[in-house]
Specification:
The complex is a heterodimer of chains A (114) and B (111).
Chain A lengths: L3 E4 L2 E4 L5 E7 L5 E8 L3 E10 L2 E4 L6 E3 L9 E3 L8 E8 L9 E2 L3 E5 L1
Parallel strand pairs in A: 2-11
Antiparallel strand pairs in A: 1-3, 3-8, 4-5, 4-9, 5-6, 7-8, 9-10, 9-11
Chain B lengths: L2 E5 L2 E5 L4 E8 L3 E9 L4 E7 L6 E3 L2 E6 L4 E6 L8 E9 L5 E3 L3 E6 L1
Parallel strand pairs in B: 2-11
Antiparallel strand pairs in B: 1-3, 3-8, 4-5, 4-9, 6-7, 7-8, 9-10, 9-11
Classes of the chains: A mainly beta (114), B mainly beta (111).
């Protein structure tokens, strides 16, 4: 099983550029989410989705957009990248629509904004 | 605002030592506490605890939850170099779609 797949694994952007981080899961999970991980800050929730067509904001949503057109895919869009968005991004999914079980994480996407 | 605090933030031990990692939480309508291990890449699931006083075990790792005092501990006995990692604690509230993570404890096991 592939589990949660993120692409790209590494990306360098210039300030102001836009890009999309892709996330796909093959476990038929309803719940999907995006976290960012910064040194000394732990994992912080950006956006999440409890099913196709439903998204909501997490703790640090500013500068990011998401959509959920299918159960499998949950892309994260940076509209105008800023150096403060330099981070490691993790996509995670879970069975059911609430936090009733473990989160399965992708391997992460390291983004550097110059 | 929900909060999860882990201590210590880092720890260096010798192989064979026993370690205890701490996690305290303040979460509205607490439902569950989870422990993850993070090596180079993605966090991997260790335990989920929902009931107070019931120990979960997996090999040399064990964890217990105290819902009265709002904390959990993760014990690792007979540590090995392969236990070197960041251990993350996270808590979820009933009806919430968010996991609140602590900052992690970085464990280094030296031969």
């Amino acid at each position: 099983n592939a589990g949660v797949t993120q692409t790209p694994k590494f990306q360098v952007l210039k300030t102001g550029q836009s890009m999309t981080l892709q996330c796909a899961q093959d476990m038929n999970h309803e719940y999907m989410s995006w976290y960012r991980q910064d040194p000394g800050m732990g994992l912080r929730l950006i956006h999440y989705s409890v099913g196709a067509g439903i998204t909501d904001q997490g703790e640090v949503p500013n500068g990011y957009n998401v959509s959920r057109s299918t159960t499998e895919d949950f892309p994260l869009r940076l509209l105008s990248a800023a150096p403060s968005q330099t981070s490691v991004y993790f996509c995670a999914s879970s069975a059911g629509t609430g936090m009733r079980g473990e989160l399965f994480f992708g391997e992460g996407s390291r983004l550097t904004v110059l | 605002e929900d909060k999860v605090v882990q201590s210590p933030l880092s720890l260096v031990v010798h192989e064979g030592d026993t370690v205890t990692l701490n996690c305290s939480y303040e979460v509205t309508n607490f439902r569950s506490l989870l422990w993850y291990k993070q090596e180079k890449k993605a966090p991997t699931f260790l335990f989920m605890l929902t009931s107070s006083g019931i120990e979960k075990k997996s090999g040399r790792l064990s964890s217990i939850l105290d819902k009265k005092e709002l904390f959990s501990i993760l014990n690792i006995t007979a540590t090995q170099t392969g236990d070197s990692a960041v251990y993350l604690c996270a808590a979820a509230g009933a009806g919430s779609y968010q996991l609140t993570f602590g900052k992690g404890t970085k464990l280094s096991v030296i031969p």
